[in-house]
């Protein structure tokens, strides 16, 4: 079993690639955004936005790895502190950690993807969410300006990883599966 971390800025294609690779392995995909959006929908507030989502995903990953499943973490992982969570988890469980840094090598295409996702994403709260959370807005999904802000705080990855450019790679799934195996 393997703990794979798919990291990169919003809109580069992490989630799409993670889903395709997961179907091939198979693996469980745990997306920090999904947890973060759900916490927001249920009006769970925290002093450090996003911090709890990473913790919840790490706990779920631990359960999945313990029962023998491959796990793919889908998260921006912009800073060393976030990345260290996965290093610690892999070491504690004695499983290999593989990082796949996903990039989009063409800024115009990256911006197109971000704007398309922002325009079409279902930004409304889940129908079972509390009534006060029913009026969610597009604020949950980063627009291009917010992606550029995230880019400024994104620390370069150091250490072993596979870098996948979703703009250039025609069929990245095979090489990623091979790297994870």
- Main β-sheet: number of strands, strand sense, barrel status? 5 strands, parallel
Segments where pLDDT lies below 50 for 5+ residues? 128-139
Side-by-side strand order of the widest sheet? 2-3-1-4-5
- Structural class by secondary-structure content: alpha/beta
What integer is the average pLDDT? 89
Can you count the beta strands? 5
The third-level CATH topology is Rossmann fold
The CATH homologous superfamily is named P-loop containing nucleotide triphosphate hydrolases
Molecular shape: globular
Q: What is the terminal separation in angstroms?
A: 8 Å
Helix run count: 7
Helicity, as a percent range: 40-55%
CATH class: Alpha Beta
- Proportion in β-strands: 5-15%
Number of domains: 1
Order of helices and strands: EHEHHEHEHHEH
SSE layout:
Blueprint: E1 3-7, H1 14-24, E2 28-31, H2 32-41, H3 51-66, E3 71-74, H4 80-93, E4 97-103, H5 107-120, H6 144-153, E5 162-165, H7 173-180
Parallel strand pairs: 1-3, 1-4, 2-3, 4-5
Helix pairs in contact: 1-7, 2-3, 3-4
What does this structure look like?
With 181 residues, this protein is of the alpha/beta class. The protein has a single domain, classed as Rossmann fold (3-Layer(aba) Sandwich). Helices cover 46% and strands 13% of the residues. The protein is built from seven helices and five strands, in the order βαβααβαβααβα. The chain has helices spanning 14-24, 32-41, 51-66, 80-93, 107-120, 144-153, 173-180, and strands at 3-7, 28-31, 71-74, 97-103, 162-165. The radius of gyration is 16 Å and the shape is globular. It starts with a strand and ends with a helix.
């Amino acid at each position: 079993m393997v703990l794979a971390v798919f990291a990169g800025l919003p809109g580069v294609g992490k989630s799409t690639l993670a889903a395709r690779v997961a179907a091939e392995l198979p693996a469980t995909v745990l997306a920090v955004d999904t947890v973060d959006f759900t916490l927001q929908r249920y009006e769970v507030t925290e002093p450090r936005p996003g911090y709890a989502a990473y913790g919840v995903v790490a706990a779920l990953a631990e359960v999945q790895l313990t029962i023998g499943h491959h796990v793919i973490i889908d998260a921006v992982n912009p800073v060393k502190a976030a990345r260290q969570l996965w290093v610690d988890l892999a070491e504690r469980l004695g499983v290999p950690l593989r990082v796949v840094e996903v990039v989009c090598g063409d800024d115009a295409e990256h911006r197109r993807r971000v704007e398309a996702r922002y325009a079409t994403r279902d930004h409304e709260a889940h129908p079972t969410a509390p009534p006060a959370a029913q009026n969610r807005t597009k604020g949950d999904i980063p627009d291009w300006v917010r992606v550029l802000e995230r880019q400024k705080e994104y620390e370069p990855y150091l250490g072993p990883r596979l870098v996948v450019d979703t703009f250039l790679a025609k069929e990245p799934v095979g090489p990623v599966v091979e790297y994870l195996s």
